[in-house]
Amino acid sequence: MTPQPNPEAGAAVKAADRDHVFHSWSAQELIDPLAVAGAEGSYFWDYDGRRYLDFSSGLVYTNVGYQHPKIVAAIQEQAARMTTFAPAFAVEARSEAARLIAERTPGDLDKIFFTNGGADAVEHAIRMARLHTGRPKVLSAYRSYHGGTQQAVNLTGDPRRWASDSGTAGVVHFWAPYLYRSRFYAETEEQECARALEHLETTIAFEGPSTVAAIILETIPGTAGIMVPPPDYLAGVRELCDKYGIVFVLDEVMAGFGRTGEWFAADLFDVTPDLLTFAKGVNSGYVPLGGVAISGAIAETFGKRPYPGGLTYSGHPLACAAAVATIGVMAEEGVVENAARLGESVVGPELRALAERHPSVGEVRGVGMFWALELVRDRQTREPLVPYNAAGEANAPMAAFAAAAKKGGLWPFVNMNRTHVVPPCNISEAELKEGLAALDAALSVADEYTA
């Protein structure tokens, strides 16, 4: 794992990228993507030989790190045996992946519909809910992210939705609990929970319960800020869904497969949805794969009635073989337990200690390998370090913080006024402490912008 500098090769990679690759969520002429030469475990490196500890897990999906040899071998073996096959057939890798996932999902979510990623998993979950109920509307939270496809981005509750929101997607947004910036004037977690549930039920009442097909929530919101909900909130949403005949969808694309120290974040709250979407950590992102875990009642809807949806690569053998290997690695190597243990004994305490030292840290929140630091200009007023959806000069404080982290060998996950601590779930304690020390140094730069 010793990076070998090769700047000429890096320049060629960068030039080809700039000439031909169209990057997502970006103004193409304003970006400067890093040319990556290699990756292994919790690290990656560039063509100049600089190595970075990845506290972003790619896009929060390399749950078992880069280039795990058992997963690489499984992909190679599957490619030698059967590289691809159409989704209408029973294929060993597909069947085994579905069985292993169903064993770990909560309740009776025993049928698995495979997709290519998280966004199309959300698309199909919503289609299933609408067909199952015969209703048109879907309720989704502000401060959420559900994907970049048309329905998924309209469900999303952050600015990435705005350019695609024509107001015709049948989506109604509501406020989920977030005590640090409460929309309900709550002073305690219990108040926040009760008032958020009252707000949701009022929204259902005024929209018309008979028009609402589904409520979709990230079990723990990811990109939006890792706001762990109050203990009784999701159970309360489950009760509202049961009361009004609404399908409850949990989006576990980011929070699933060990990220929270449980196989699924739903297990932290002892709640079972009707549909659960997954992707990312299911195979550590080695080959694109996502899916919907489906309850018995919804599966029965399509027992004799065709489900009007599918994908050419649904349950792709290479992706499913990677999932089988990933789940095996996680079980054999105690990856879920590692995330839980180090989250409780190292990450949580260390981040809270950082908050004591750095005036830029307004709040620390998270669980497992899923944490966020909310950065502020003023702890008393809670003014964010940068404005909502800041860009350009307005975003300079966060850009300076991120640059300092990278200079210190840490690759951060930064969104708006937050930095997230989301390393691989199998990271070692020594690697964690290395990254947290680099984070400590970078926060000194953020402190320069505080009041």
TrEMBL record:
Q: Which UniProt keywords apply?
A: Aminotransferase, Pyridoxal phosphate, Transferase
Q: Which InterPro entries match?
A: Aminotrans_3, Aminotrans_3_PPA_site, PyrdxlP-dep_Trfase, PyrdxlP-dep_Trfase_major, PyrdxlP-dep_Trfase_small
Q: One GO molecular-function annotation for this sequence?
A: transaminase activity
A GO cellular component entry from the record: cytosol
Top-level taxon: Bacteria
SUPFAM superfamilies the UniProt entry points to: PLP-dependent transferases (SSF53383)
Keyword Transmembrane helix in annotation:
no
- In this record, what's one Pfam family? Aminotran_3
**Sorted alphabetically, which PANTHER family does this protein's record hold?**
AMINOTRANSFERASE, AMINOTRANSFERASE CLASS-III
Family, similarity comment: Belongs to the class-III pyridoxal-phosphate-dependent aminotransferase family.
* Name assigned to this protein: Aspartate aminotransferase family protein
The species is: Streptomyces tuirus
